[in-house]
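Q: Sequence in, structure out?
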Amino acid sequence: MKGAIYMHSVKKTLAAGLMAAITVQTSWAAESPTVIEFVRPLGMGGAFTALSDDKNAFTYNPAGMVQRTGGEVTIFEIVAGGSEDLKEAYEFIDENNDELTDFDTLPAPEQVRLANEIQNKIARLRPHAYFGADVASYVSGPLFKGVHLGFGLMGLADARFRLYNGAVAPLIDYSINSDVLLPVSLAKRWNAPLVPGKIGVGVTGKYIKRSQVSESRLSVFELDDIEVPPMTEGSAIGSDLGFLYQPSGRWNVGLMVRDFLGTKMKFDAREAEDGFAAKESRDTVIRPRTNIGVSVVPKSYFGLGHTSDRLTLSADVRDIFGKDTHVLFQDGFRRPLGDDFATNFHMGAEFRYWFLRLRGGAYQGYPTFGLGIDIPLIKIDYAFFSRELGARAGDIQEKNHVVSLALRFGSGKTEARERIKKSQELRKGVKADAPAEAETAKPEEPETEKPTLGDTKKK
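A: Exactly. Output:
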């Protein structure tokens, strides 16, 4: 028997995930939240609660929309990513395809060799692939009475599989988890009472469509005629609540309560089909999670030169009131940072120069890197980040690469971009007023950002 039945199975699994749409954790004991992390925040270590000035406000903080001076329209965005383990597992399956598919006919020494390689090398891998799409979304600037509006349709499919040894032959586990999200957000900003600055409040109402499918201990001998079981489908209507305090034009402090008051999800009953057992309907809840964050657009590089407002720094702490986690004040003020602080801490930076966006940070303590290309209408982004799969920081590192291509316009119309323009104009004015003899001096390297190609609106 010859043929790529392993690869056939993997392709069918990933294709089914792509047709569905969004990430959810492998364990289904408790429902995980709908968190759609697009490439820009991932390159910044996932620290976006206090920034959240684009369509990522639907995930990180709807109050962040109040920073927009104009609208952002995404016509379509496609995202694809996977773990480094996925590549290694694919290469192993490709190189050993014939031996795996004809495992029962191999000589005993060859079976032992292959089983040892699976046990010592492949079984530890956690291959992971995901595909996402922002079908269409809109985030406005200030509209009637300063209210900001946002809405969209987006999703992300997440697929995992694992190859390991069984008593007779190698076995495969796989799972596909997906969500489709339809959010509608409103936000408004006021002068803060009693303290200097401004405060923004945002709320998101959302409809979630969730699909899940999995199989475990699937023998390689069954893969030639594999049938993917029907997906279990559920739906929910929930809400998110966000706040953004701006003590000055450079500092933001954000707070986001995802699934405010809990999001009740109902899974439909599934009838027996194609030899797969029926499943009863069930009700579950996505519990609330509270995230806090801070961001700043510094004036200088720690006193080493003017930034021209091209640099943004941010930091987040997620799920600070988690029922089963210890993030902050585990033993009161004696331990302000709990055992789970490292796996809930995120930090990042973004540097804008002309049409380039350089990003970096730390996602759960692991370094991240990102690069964005922002040209008229077309936006290309890449990010490398790692996720912690274990209980504590440093247990199980999952390295991921993700890339996206989007058709989008209006993305530069935020307060940060306005500061950059004002800084440019101010510096140009200073040069124009300089003494005539200064013209003979060697010109200095300009510190201002070149005009963004996608921002064609003149002031």
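Residues 5-271+279-440 form a domain with the Porin fold (CATH 2.40.160).
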